[in-house]
What we know:
By secondary structure, the chain is of the alpha/beta class. Helices cover 16% and strands 26% of the residues. The strands form 3 sheets. The protein has a 9-stranded mixed sheet. A 4-stranded antiparallel sheet has the order 10-17-15-12, with no helix packed on it. α1 (18-30) packs across α5 (252-270). The longest helix is centred in the last third of the chain and has 19 residues, at 252-270. The chain is globular.
Amino acid sequence: xxxxxxxxxxxxxxxxxxxxxxxxxxxxxxxxxVVILEIPHPTAVRRTVAFSTAVTDGFIDxxxxxxxxxxxxxxxxxxGFEPLNYIPIIVDPESACLARLRPHVFIDAIVNKKNYGTxxxxxxFVMALGPGFTAGSDCHAVIxxxxxxxxxxxxxxxxxEENTGRPGGVMxxxxxxxxxxxKDGIFKTTRRIGDVVxxxxxxxxxxxxxxxxxxxxxxxxxxPDDFKVRYYTKIGDIDPRGDNAYCYSISDKSRAIGRxxxxxxxxxxxxxxxxx
Length: 276
């Protein structure tokens, strides 16, 4: 496998949330060059395990893999030519730099249940996570993101399962473990990811409206203080299992999706469709 020089195969990922980060982590660990494109103000709540956090903090380390905020100009003479020991994060909400980066693989991983412009011609191999895409027309492959028997399935024709609108169950808790905003405003909080909360504890405010935890647990995801939010923005989530370590490690779902994406890329290499 060393003769393939996997670092010469460039994988660009649109989005740096927790599921996208599972994909980035798997591909990077396997030896591929990985670049993430993000928006100026990422909305991922699981910020401790989302490479998008590098946009605001400059860098982030997730299980030994580092991401750094970067500029496309500084990468053009590096990516594909030499192995990088980090994942560059570029603020590029329109994916305008694709023509300059010329990736072998492009993955739409914003998981927004709708295609916001990704085309099957964006790269030799284009993938997307979850519903809103049709493999064979929008992209070459779709990765199933819905929990259950098909989680991580690589779909090469057709679509992923429709969005249920129901959060994944954790110890029997679904909607009650997720905090969502009810109006536009500014989110204010003194809480941090990893804090232990009891049912009824205030997690934060939007326009002086207090958001209270509906269950006992640990804050596993939370938007930063002073963050501008819109209606139905996910503000945070509470993990009823109460294990602080889960706040700082890649989830089972994210890891499954990441390994599925890695498998899909390796299959294309085996078929001779991706060469360095």
